[in-house]
Amino acid sequence: MNVKQFVNKAIYLISVPLAVGLFMELLVYAQTGGHLVSSVLDLRNLVRDLGVTAVIAFALSLNLGSGRFDLSLGAQRLVATIIGGNIAVSLGFNGIGLLIMAILMGLLAGFGVGMVFSVFRVPPVILGLGMAMIYESLAFAGSDGKGLQLFGVPDIEMLVNPNFTLLVLGLGTLFVFILFTFTKFRYEMQAMRGSQKIAKTSGINVFRHVVICYTLAGGLVAISGVFSASFTGALAPMLGMTSNSAVIAMTFPMFLGTYLARRTNIAVGIISASLTIKLFGIGMVALKVSNSLNTVINMLVFIGFLAFLANERIPALRRRQRARIKEAKEKRIELESVTNVGRL
Question: Any long-range contacts for 114-117 (C-beta under 8 Å, 24+ apart)?
Fold first, then answer.
């Protein structure tokens, strides 16, 4: 890729959140006289939400990109953060140790789901439901229903530092960028998206690839769990599949990021999409839109975007169809003229 292509891609990725941010800034200023980001606290919240959103979207892209929707991701996030976090706190680890312990537990939780899928060949949706209930129960029982409490825990202040959040997010983005750019995982993922049967016939170990996807996704969602727990001071256990709500809410940035990644890498595409959606959300809050109405607006925009994705090729198909019809008519007229000349 030459310098011109790199600059064009960078401008393309920056322009999307910049356009949304500028639009929301003008709207907020016109309605309230204030600004989209008016304080350091707003900036800190933006960095925090960006980190949580992006790493969950990364995790979703690993499986959803191949047609598998892992409904246990929220429970993996829960059990990794609560169990791993409590182990780290009991051992006296600092913030980095707590994060590493949670990631290890997340990798283990994801590996467990991937192995069950590979051994028993359970459909992904059914598997996700079952494993979610198991992991939610483990998180509840493993913490005696208390979850993870970080109030008063020493040496974890770094977890709420925006610079540390950006550092972890940068490392996570770099990891996903390398994974989808310079490793054979990228080619295996592309083959799996086309047809798993063909990918298997071509020599790809499909189930090994699936286990890797589930494992890495578990580690990524664990990062988001630690960030959420550190910013709120606690993470409560959940039952009845409620843990998955935090993950499902991130499907919009994942799909938008995948769309933006057509001109670049999935990692930077998701970062751009996550920042875009977070700026839009901050604008809704600044406009004093209620949570329920905000959710409705976001879902309507999401559904509209999905409708666009489903129909974006129709205009091109119709243009090609009209071109073929026009060409056929011209050939028919030419043939008729030649036939008429022959008769004369």
Answer: 114/210, 114/211, 114/212, 114/213, 114/214, 114/215, 115/211, 117/207, 117/210, 117/211, 117/214
Q: How far is Cα 36 from Cα 26, in angstroms, rounded to an integer?
A: 8
Instruction: Tell me how far apart the alpha carbons of residues 116 and 112 are, in angstroms, rounded to a whole number.
Output: 6
Check residues 2 and 286 and name the one with the higher pLDDT. Answer: 286
Q: 155 and 241 share a domain?
A: yes
Question: What are 151's two structure tokens?
Answer: 């109030």
Sign of the C-alpha dihedral computed for residues 43, 45, 51 and 54 taken in this order = negative
pLDDT at 133: 93
232, 249, 266 - which closes a domain = 249
Segments of 217-273 assigned E as strands: 234-235
Looking at the domain assignment, is residue 4 inside a domain? no
Number of domains in the chain: 2
d(CA 263, CA 259): 8
Alpha-carbon 271 to chain mean position = 9
Is residue 273, in this structure, part of any structural domain at all? Answer: no
Cα separation, 132 vs 137, whole angstroms = 8
Task: Supply the pTM of this predicted model.
Answer: 0.88
Structural domain containing residue 48: 37-249
- What per-residue confidence (pLDDT) applies to 55? 94
pLDDT at position 186, please? 83
Residues 193, 331: one domain?
no
Instruction: For Cα atoms 163, 102, 100, give the angle at the middle one, nearest 5 degrees.
Output: 55
The reply to whether 298 falls in a domain is: no
* Same domain, yes or no: 331 and 223: no
Q: Give the chain's length.
A: 344
Q: Tens of pLDDT along 185-209?
A: 888 887 877 667 777 777 788 889 9
* Whether residues 222 and 322 fall in one domain: no
DSSP, res 240: T
338 vs 113: which has the higher pLDDT: 113
Q: Tell me, what's the pLDDT at 343? A: 57
Which pLDDT score, from 0 to 100, does residue 196 have? 72
**Domain edge (last residue) among 216, 249, 282:** 249
